[in-house]
Amino acid sequence: MQNLRTLLSPLRVFDAVCRAKGVSRAAHLLHVTPGAVSQQIKQLEVGLGVQLFQKSGRRIELTAVGERLAHRVSDAFGRLHDALDDLADNQREKRLRLKVTPSLAIRWLVPRLHGFYAHHPDIALEIATIAMADDVQLEGADCAIRHGMGEWADVELDHLFDDEFLPVCAPSLAGQLQAPQDLLHANLLHSMLRLQAWPLWFGSAGLAPPPRQRGITLANAALCYQAAADGLGVAMAQRAYVENDLRIGRLVVAVDHVARTELGYYLVCDPVKATTTPVRLFRDWIRSVR
Fold first, then answer.
1. What are the extents of the domains in the chain?
2. How far is the CA of 258 from the CAs of 11, 167, 168, 236, 263, in angstroms?
3. CATH 3.40.190.290, domain 93-290, yes or no
4. Which residues pair with 168 in a beta bridge?
5. Between the N and C ends of the chain, which has fewer C-beta atoms within 10 Å?
6. Is the separation of the CB atoms in 143 and 131 below 8 Å?
7. Contact criterion met (CB below 8 Å) for 167 and 123
8. Residues 95, 126: contact at Cβ < 8 Å?
9. What gap in Å lies between CA 107 and CA 85, rounded to an integer?
10. Helices 34-48 and 23-30 sit at what angle, rounded to 10 degrees?
11. Do the strands 259-269 and 143-148 form a parallel or antiparallel pair, or are they unpaired?
12. Helix (H, G, I), strand (E, B), or coil: what is residue 30?
């Protein structure tokens, strides 16, 4: 058998043919002609002294020996790729770029980040805020937190939490509110980014919303929760965003009714980047805190 180093190029071509399931498609992937691919396969067969492919009509198929070699070569190139990735990761700054809405960043992500940095202080995290989480794109980011049903075929995803809406207010206001209909006359706090939250909640309680938008409209949910804690009115809250406030008594549930939807929040990332060290570690961590 020839020296391994002389067979590395033919082995790379062989792996491409196996992955592409054809000479022409492999040639396209490698940016060479089909003739050049066939020549490299012939060189490999001569060097190894075995037949790797056989014709089946107009197609070629791996022989039994070719099948065994294909698995070994794929595994070897995979391990070599991982080794080079690890080396590159150790040499460059470990950076993770994330897109989220302001309210999710303030109310859910940032309060939990100390746990991530306790284990991975060497990863530089960049958090960019976006106006809406519906179908947010990944351009300029490694990951994003997207709102929807989780039916995106072009990304890898991790489910974080589902929509659960409940009205919250300061403890001083809670005694005035007993049933859903009491909120029809309350001072309501509205988020510009989720103006349908109150109509959704009233509808789930079997009530029509007030005929006009009562109360105060603020830029985002985080401001609504602050206004509610200050006694300015009742905010419609995403449960995941106010769990800590409810636990310590800064906010209380105004009326015990929860509105749910089929939507949720998901961490999404490009499949190509999913195996990079910063993304992999961040996904492992976020699964543990969701």
1. 4-91, 93-290
2. 60, 8, 11, 10, 14
3. yes
4. 235, 253
5. N
6. no
7. no
8. yes
9. 34
10. 110
11. antiparallel
12. helix
Residue type, 253: V
Cβ contacts of 77 within 8 Å, gap of 6 or more: 12, 15
Do the domains spanning 4-91 and 93-290 agree at the CATH topology level? no
Three-class secondary structure of residue 268 per DSSP: strand
Smallest Cα–Cα separation from 208: which of 189, 179, 235, 181? 181
Nearest in space to 134 (alpha carbons), one of 152, 109, 113: 152
Residue pair 101/129 in contact (Cβ under 8 Å)? The answer is yes
**One-letter amino acid for residue 237 of the chain:** A
Structure token digits, residue 67: 């099948």
CATH of domain 4-91: 1.10.10.10
CA dihedral 110→116→117→122, nearest 10 degrees, is -120
Dihedral sign, CA of 146, 152, 157, 163? positive
Residue 140's SS3 state is coil
Q: What is the pLDDT along the chain (290 residues), one digit of tens a residue?
A: 556 778 889 999 999 999 888 899 888 888 899 999 999 999 989 888 899 999 887 788 999 999 999 999 988 888 887 777 766 655 556 889 999 998 999 999 999 999 999 999 999 999 998 877 776 778 888 999 999 999 888 899 999 999 999 999 999 999 889 999 999 999 999 999 888 999 999 999 999 988 766 789 999 999 999 999 999 999 999 999 999 999 999 999 999 999 999 999 999 998 888 888 899 999 999 999 87
DSSP output for 37-75? HHHHHHHHHHHHTS--EEEETTEEEE-HHHHHHHHHHHH
Supply the pTM of this predicted model. 0.66
Residue 109 near residue 267, CB atoms below 8 Å: no
Amino acid (1-letter code) at residue 167: P
